[in-house]
Request: fold
Amino acid sequence: MSSALHNSLISVTLDLMGGEEKARELLHKISECGEILNVSSIYKRYTSDAKNDLSARIEFVLRFETMMSVEQHLHLVLSLCDEGSSGLVQRSHVEMILLAYDDMILMSPRLTLPYPQLHTDALIIRCAAEAWGQYEHPIYQKTLSEISKTARTARDAEFYKQGKSLIDF
Reply:
C-alpha cells in the first residue's frame, strides 16, 4: 500500500431479497481496507417492465478512501463480487464496479476509469453525485453534481431507503 490516501467511487448492485444484509457485510469488509466516507441513497431498480419486486435489485454508490493502489482496489472490488448461480442453491447476485479512482484516466483490458457509463446511466450518476458531488470528471471537466442535473430521469428505478442505514455498524 502507498502512504497517500486515494478516493474512489464504487457502485454496488445486489438482489432485493436479502440485499440489505449482504450490503452491510460488504461494507464491513470494505471498511477494513479504508474508510467509507459517504453512501448514496439506495434505489430499487426493476429488471423487467412488469416491475416485479422479486426480480428487482438494490443499487447504491459509495465514496471510499484508502491507501490501496488502483490495482489493489480493483482486486478488492472483484474479490467481493459474485455471480448468482442457477438452480436450488442460488447465491445472491453481487455486482460491484469501480467507477472512479482519484482523477485517474485509464483504459486497459481489465479496467477503464472513469467508468464509461458513469455519466450515461441515470441512476449511477444520481447515486454518484450523492456520494461525491464535487468529484470532477477528468474528461468532461464537470462535477458529478453538474452532470447529474442534466441527466435524464431513471424511469426503471425508485428510491428505496437512505444509504446511511447500511453503515451504522
Observations:
- Residues 30 and 113 are 20 Å apart (CA to CA).
- Residues 83-90 have pLDDT under 50 and may be disordered.
- The beta strands are 6-15, 35-39, 42-45, 57-66, 94-101, 106-107, 112-113, 157-161.
- The first strand starts at residue 6 and ends at 15.
